[in-house]
Amino acid sequence: MPERLQFKPPQFLPRAGAWVKGIWRYGVFLAKGYCVRSPRVMVVATALALARLSYGVPLSDPAVDSYNVHVGTQTFAGLYQFTTNTLLVETAQAIQGIGSDTIKLYLGSNYLRQYNFALASQITNLVTLTRDDLSCRRVLDMPFRHVIAWTYPFANGDAPFTDGDYTPIEQANDYREVYDLAQYLLTNYNNSGKFFYLGHWEGDGYLNVNGWSTNPRPAVIQGMIAWENTRQKAVDDAKSNTAFTNVDVFYYAEANRVRDAMVNGSTNNQRVINVVVPYVTNLDFVSYSSYDAMDLASTPLYSTLDYIKSNLPVNKAIPSMGQRVWIGEYGWGGWSTAAQEPAGRAYIQRLLGWGPRFILFWEIYNNETNRNFCLIDSNGVKLASYYLHQRFINQARLALGRFEETNSRLPTDSEFGGLMGPGLSQPLLAPVSLTLSNLPATVTGSSATLTGQVAQGLYGDDQAEVWVFWGRQDGATVVTNWETGRRLGVNTNFNSATFRALVNGLQAQTNYYFRFYATNASGEAWAPSSALLSTQTLDPGDYGSRLRISLSGYDHLQVLANFPMLVALSTNLPGFSYSRFADANGGDLRFTDAVGSLIVPHEIDEWNPGGTSFVWVQMPQLAGTNDCIWAYWGNPLATNFPAWTTNGSTWLPPYEAVWHLKESGFPYMDSTRRYPLLSGNSPGSVVGVVGYGVLFDGSTQYLSPGSLSLSNAFTFSAWVKVDPSASGIQTICANKIEGWNRAGFALYVNTYLTSDHRLLLESGNGSAGQTAVTAPELVTPWCVASRGSRGEQTKRVCAAVRRWSRPNPDQRSPARFQQPSRIEPRALCRRQFYVQRVDGRNSHRAGSPLFGLDLGQLAVGGTEPGHGQLFPGCSSAGLPVAIGFRDCCGRELGRHRSRPCPVFGDQSGLPNPLDENT
């Protein structure tokens, strides 16, 4: 659409599959389901066309698809099902739903017990089972790359050697059916990229004598060695006698009493791993049903895996297959399903440090009455461990894609463990299909370059169309509210990709908003908020003084756009004088970008010509130690306060609410001009670390903004000073009282009945609750208390900022030169919303009214873990939760949790900045 045209149809950006075409002729616009007739409007020979969206190509990579991400699950003898499919097909589809390319299943004659249906009479051996049974064939044809199977020939019992007499006929039967099956799989799935692993259930179960309290009979041990060698030879011979490409079949033995062999005495230490496996001369793999090692720490766990590996015959190498050991089973079925997730996550984390080929959870559906060995329960509920697996697999494939994109290769197994292991230290967040952010715009005259980043969070999702919208009004998330939009292209990157648009013809001295947008088959997404760009400029020659403000203390990688920074102007600064202002109230104060001409918004927090004045300035970009802005004053022709000093532009749009608490009583104003604090029991006004704050009495005083409805991704921050003598819970903000399990949350200092100066975040749903706790002595004596809605870790990091001022060489009239001086910032805190200068005692007693900040209610939606739940343990419907804030630097909360929050200052115990270098 030509930028000069302002007329638009209501929906000129189509969603998936939609199309729009039109010709501006005789004022008629044609769109799908929309028609406008305006005979008085005529624009000749001007065409409008928005092409059909071209996404539909998945963002995936064959090399990533084929990479083994280790984790998976299996299906055996489930006790329930929910569809008209066979249990085998249904559970296989459920495993596909996790995103897994690995399945472990049963191949044998007993399908009635395993999958609740009887095999047809013509199914008489392993080949006819895999070839002719519709359910088995359907599952093997699914896009599972790794198929692990308990494999039992029809002609024999499961373990014919347990009687101590593994006869030649039994050996021949085993050999023939396993050989034929291996040959069929190699032929039928030739060039499919599939790997088949044929083996058996827990081998020590076949050697069980008196509950593993004694050694098995030598004849049974020898029979098992012969059984394993026979089946392994059948696989090897089939591979030798068959031509195949890009498919393979292997054999494995499974052990399950490994710790017995390692630590028991000689009378009961003979187990599969030490008396059978070493004598299977060409054994491909060992599977470890690891219930006896799940709770071991890393060192003994690795020793156990090393012991297994040391007993494997070394005469058979399998190129490019990694470790020849895997975890065939693990799980805590006797525990609650909630308790299993952290245990499983920690176990996977430890195992990745060693690198077993597979880590297989037991199992997708429960197979034991009154136990919890499942990822999906008997009510069809996907459990916490289900989401652990699903999110891990998705994150693993995204990480692999990003690694390959960066390094032009895939990671080794050890690199993969290092890539994925650290993230398992906490619950995995639900993936967000599309994440966008606006980066700082670059303005040159009447042109601007709009820059944004897009990242796709679902591996294999369709590539996203990326757009940018801009205009003189903030169109928010409604396409038709924007003056202009432009399609920028399709995202084809696993890593975050940067998109840019050069915009021409901007009006002078005008503020514009812009916002990036993306859409694909999963939906659509906007940058968290609109960004501001301005063509308003300043002529340096009109001002008598200027001051360069640099930020040498910011050394983080994240680029912060339109970031509010606090500048303190003080009579204690050498060479600084309020007498240089043309307006006694600071009306001629202006700030510009690093170039020194493009004006940026500011808000005067407190103006004090006799002392220190505090001003919040919207830093266009904070990316490194060389960034700076300029302050100008001393212009008698510019003494009227610009609109942005009072309309909230300095904070909007990323911030939802900002309370400085400088007022002496109600109303306490919100700098975004949306949520003033109008009710509560007003505390007293006192001097705080930045101007005036409030002193709560620790008993009855509180402030409330009423009810707010926000997204489930936000950060809350407060500047607090706790009385050193205060003991017990000191509330910063809360919307619940009394017990830890009450519905809502509370952010407070001090554990119950202590003075340990911990920062605690407590959440509950009415019946259960959780508490996140920092180390002791975090809050001393001043602290920026920060918590995110997705369990962010609290950060308290100090850094330095250098400032200097100089005379304005562009002054057209004689200038009074300033001496080098320093401006002390009091806070630089990214990703946070501020409640500033909450000074004094804040407490919370059971049964008493709230004090501190009573932050109203937040209703969030969603039923799956991580979707709509503000804190673990909170109800997902009508949750009474304290105020929420969107990410102030325009990012989805949780993507940058490792970034600390720098704190600057030189009063009341805060560290001083580094010495100035001018």
Summarize the structure.
The chain is α/β, with parallel strands linked by helices.
Overview of the molecule:
The two termini are 50 Å apart. The chain has 918 residues and is an alpha/beta fold. It contains 14 helices and 42 strands. The strands form eleven sheets. Strands 11-10-9-8-7-6-5-12 form an eight-stranded parallel beta sheet.
The biggest beta sheet is recorded as: 8 strands, parallel
Provide mean pLDDT, rounded: 79
Low-confidence stretches: 1-54, 786-918
- Straight-line distance between termini: 50 Å
- What is the helix content? 10-25%
Tally of contiguous helical segments: 14
Radius of gyration: 34 Å
Secondary-structure map:
Elements: E1 20-24, E2 28-31, E3 34-37, E4 46-50, H1 62-65, E5 71-74, H2 87-98, E6 102-107, H3 111-115, H4 126-132, H5 134-141, E7 146-151, H6 168-188, E8 195-199, H7 203-206, H8 218-240, E9 248-255, H9 258-263, H10 272-275, E10 285-289, H11 298-311, E11 325-329, H12 337-352, E12 359-361, H13 384-407, H14 413-420, E13 434-444, E14 447-456, E15 465-471, E16 484-490, E17 497-503, E18 511-520, E19 523-526, E20 531-534, E21 545-550, E22 560-570, E23 590-592, E24 599-600, E25 602-606, E26 612-622, E27 628-633, E28 679-681, E29 684-687, E30 692-695, E31 702-704, E32 715-721, E33 730-734, E34 744-749, E35 759-764, E36 769-773, E37 782-788, E38 797-798, E39 806-807, E40 838-839, E41 852-854, E42 902-903
